[in-house]
Amino acid sequence: MKIGVITFPGSLDDHDAMRAIRVAGGDAVSLWHGDADLHGVDAVVVPGGFSYGDYLRCGAIARFAPVMDRLIPAAQGGLPVLGICNGFQVLCESHLLPGALTPRTDQRFYCNDQVLKVESTSTAWTSAYDEGAEITVVHKNGEGRFVADEHTLDELEGEGRVVFRYVGGNPNGSYRDIAGVTNERGNVVGLMPHPEHCVEEGYGPSLDGLAFFTSVLTAAAGV
Amino acid sequence: MGHVVIDVMPKTEILDPQGQAIAGALPRLGIDQFADVRQGKRFVLAVDGDVTQEHLAQARAAAEKMLSNPVIEDVVSVRVLEADGR
Questions:
Q1: pLDDT digits (tens, 9 = 90+) for B42-70
Q2: Given A60, A105, A149, which is nearest B66 (Cβ)?
Q3: Residue A42 φ/ψ region, left for φ over 0, alpha for ψ in the -120 to 50 degree band, beta for the rest
Q4: Domains delineated in chain A
């Protein structure tokens, strides 16, 4: 089972994402931003970092990379895609996910072990979790405040498309404590915290991130 | 050489932490007459020769597709920069 990880200029967490895929039992395939080819992968991770230096808006320039010309229609066609942190910002800028990520209300860069509630297990990336479970994963960003208009927020809630919510206080002013969302089909998921840093003993606060990757391996296998 | 100016502002209903940080710092300089500050972006696009309607149409496309995010920002204006810099 091949899972691609895109590297943009300024991506930071691409290698951790590839490592997490391998720990979960998948084959990690490196995808290059300038290569308009997904190389036959079964799923894609858009990793964290600061693509193009966060210039213009976070994710705004990466969204127009050649590899995205292939990823966007593939995601619309059902390919499982996970956007983590900057990857979530790229997916919002690509209109694969609704809303936008804006600077934290206090303008600080935030780094903590964040408790999240799993609100939906009917996505390609969260099926291995128990609904309502609380997980603890690394969280580190300056522009992770999820915003959308009221209509969109109501729609997300009504359709069960809020996938993760912050627990123990809202760290950044995200509307309705939203940490992660999915598209209508449930194959595209984006979140600000970093499950890929929480898959091995000795690194991060838990192993709670591993189920993202075991979930998608199950989904991609069509089981 | 002609120039097209594009101004983009955060939507009024979206919190602007950068503007707030500036608003909070101005009183330290003794500048205390302003109730609020909002910060936007200006893009200046250069063309060879005079700015044509086609240039303006392309600039509007750039403003909508890339230079702004309609979820959080408004394109306030797309216009020719006059020779006197206005």
A1: 999 999 999 999 999 999 999 999 999 99
A2: A60
A3: alpha
A4: 2-220 (3.40.50.880)
